[in-house]
Amino acid sequence: MRRTSFALAILIACVTPLFAQTERPAEPQKYEHGPDSNPVAGVPEGTVTRHSWTSKIFDGTVRDYYVYVPATYDATRPTAVMVFQDGHAYVNKTGEFRVPVVFDNLIHKQELPPIIGIFIDPGHRGESLPKVRWEANNRSVEYDTLSDQYSKLILDEILPEVGKTHNLTKDPGQRAICGASSGGICAWTVAWERPDAFRKVLSHIGSFTNIKGGHDYQAKIRKTTRKPIRVFLQDGDHDLNNQHGNWWLANLEMESSLQFAKYDLKTDWGHGAHNGNHGGVILPDSLRWLWRKNDGPYKFDNEILAFEEADKNSPPPSQSILFAGARVSGCGHRLRKIFRSILFLIVDSVVRCSRITSFSPTGL
């Protein structure tokens, strides 16, 4: 009996910390950037240029956009493209995302192909742009509306303009799109409406809530034939909860719908708030997964790499990654219940065995 009690105590001591890791902390967690998010000596730096644009798709709006060109850019070959919404936040080398720095490091290590980054700010109606670019007055119209209008801004205006001076690929598998908050749902909408143009999506703290009907995607995804889109979702359990909905729950619903429809999916759930900290810290790993190949590092000697579309008969399983001990898996709250059930069964079995072995020396 003493031996059984000791084993039970050890079991409980080992499993209890596992549960504690998944609990929602009282305050949002602060994540720290890794080496791939900081400049590295000897790594060639790409160039970033700033431009202005007056749109006809969103008539009367003006905006800035930025173009990152990697040091390894070869003008003789079509180059992969990644478009970022709220471009000012992603192009900032000292902010949370630091995309030019991350691109420099990962492209140099051949963990990404050479990518031209296009960072687009939201449109604004007025004589001058707001100092705080998040306050552009056409942002929600462009980002939260479920239509193909914003995709036309990218495909009919911005990409052709950038393409005048850069050799951009037209391969949808070599085009990715990314955004945060309303920019996150916007990135998904562009790929959803135009999978012939974009097939990689990275969403940070995506606003899949009822700002302008975004909560409908949870049902649309389930009822629509799967589209050839690879998607990475990030969010934290301290995200917003307001009249439009609960961001954390909405992202979990997106995960469930995408899993049901068998999309090529990975999620990273943490304890962050409605900001770019968590998404920025995991950006290098997010990009590695989004642009991954199954046969080793990228090689550029002969041709631009083609998109690896998932086998429709054997769709890839969704994936979830563990980050900084913040959770058991991508949906820690659900898995915690499973672990508790398993623990109960183990404890119950141990107790039953102890009762049987201590009843009689003969077992009668």
Characteristics of this structure?
364 residues; alpha/beta; Rossmann fold; nine-stranded mixed beta sheet; two-stranded antiparallel sheet; 18% strand
Unreliable runs, pLDDT <50, ≥5 residues? Answer: 295-314, 321-331, 354-364
**Portion of residues in helices?**
25-40%
CATH level-two architecture of the largest domain: 3-Layer(aba) Sandwich
Pairing-aware structural class of the strands and helices?
alpha/beta
CATH superfamily of the largest domain: Alpha/Beta hydrolase fold, catalytic domain
Compute the CA-based radius of gyration.
24 Å
Which strand-content bin applies to the residues? 15-25%
List the total number of helices.
11
CATH class of the largest domain: Alpha Beta
N-C termini distance:
18 Å
Give the H and E element order.
HEEEHHEHHEHEHEEEHEHHEH
Reported for the largest beta sheet, the result is: 9 strands, mixed
How many separate structural domains? Answer: 2
Shape: globular
In short:
This protein is an alpha/beta fold and 364 residues long. The protein contains 11 helices and 11 strands.
Task: Explain what you see.
There is one protein chain. It is globular, with a radius of gyration of 24 Å. The chain has helices spanning 2-22, 87-91, 99-108, 139-144, 149-163, 182-193, 217-223, 247-260, 277-281, 283-290, 332-357, and strands at 47-54, 62-69, 80-85, 115-120, 175-180, 200-204, 230-238, 241-242, 245-246, 264-273, 319-320. The chain is an alpha/beta fold and 364 residues long. The protein has a nine-stranded mixed β-sheet, with helices on both faces. It has eleven helices and eleven strands.
